[in-house]
Amino acid sequence: MQNRGNNHAQGIDVSHWQGTIDWDKVYSSGKSFVFMKASQGTSRVDPNFKINASRAKAAGLLIGPYHFLDAITPGAARQEAQHFYETLLTADVEFDLPPVMDYESNPGRLSKQSINEIAKSFLAEIERLTGRTPIIYTGNSFAQQFDAELGRYPLWVARYSNQAPYDVPGWNTWSFWQYSDTGSIPGITGNVDLNEFSGTVKELQRFCQLHTEPSESKGTDSNSLLESRISALERRLNMSGTEPLPKWAEPAVIAGKQSGAITTSADKGVPELVALQMLYNLGLLESKTQKS
C-alpha cells in the first residue's frame, strides 16, 4: 500500500478513554477530522459520544462515528448494526464521514468464512439503514481475514510503523491510516490515536460528499431506505414518548405546520411525525411545500 504524504489531512480517533476534550485546541493543532466511538455490541453506548460529536463539529472538524463489533453470528451482526444506527439518531449533528465498522479481533476463534459472513451482514445492514457506504477499520494483519469482495469498502487500517501497510486480499491502498496509538496533541490529556487521510483536506471534503448519499449504481431503493429509517426512529421515539420534542425533529415540525401537513406535535411517538422528519431530511417535504 502507499506511504504517508506531506500534504495529507491529519486526524485522530477518540472514545471516552480520552476524557473531556478541548476540541478548539484540537482543531487549532492542525487536525481536520476525527472518528469517535459511538457504540459496541447490541447495547453499549460510549458515554462521551454525543458530547464529542457536537463539540468536535462545532470546533470545525469533520466527524465520523464508529462501532466496535462483538458479533459471532450474522444475525447478531445485523442487531449490532441496528443498535449503531439507533445510537447515531441520538446525536444532534450531521456526520461528515461515513459510519465505520471496527472489526479487529477474533476472540470467538471463528473461521475465516464466518468472519466474512459477519462483516458482510453488518455492513449490508448499516448501509441499508444509512444509505451510506461504510468504512472498514481493522489492523493490517487482521485485514488478511477479509475476502477480496470487501475491498469495495474504503479501508481504515491500523499499522503503528513508519513503514507503509502491506497489501492484503481486499486492498492495495488505504483511505485512512492509523499510524500511531501514542500521539500527544493539545486539548487531550494522555495518548491519542493519530490518523492520516490519503489526500488533502479538500480531497477529504470531497470524499465525504461522495459518500453522503447512495448512488443509483448500488441499486438502493429509496422507499426501503425511508421505511427502515422510519422503523428505527419509531422504536427510538416510542421509548421516550413523554419527553420534550427532540431538537432533530424541530425543523420538520416547523415545516410541517407551515405546509399544513400536521397541526400538533404533542405525541412524539406517532409514525406520522417520524415519517415527516424522514421526508424532510430527504428533501421531499420541502419540495412538496414549494409546489403547493
TrEMBL record:
Statement: the UniProt record of this protein carries the keyword Membrane? no
Q: Which UniProt keywords apply?
A: Glycosidase, Hydrolase
* TM helices/strands, residue ranges: none
Return the Pfam families for the record: Glyco_hydro_25 (PF01183)
Write out the GO MF terms: lysozyme activity
GO BP terms: carbohydrate catabolic process; cell wall macromolecule catabolic process; peptidoglycan catabolic process
The family annotation for this protein states: Belongs to the glycosyl hydrolase 25 family.
Q: Which PANTHER family match?
A: LYSOZYME
The name on file for this protein is Lysozyme
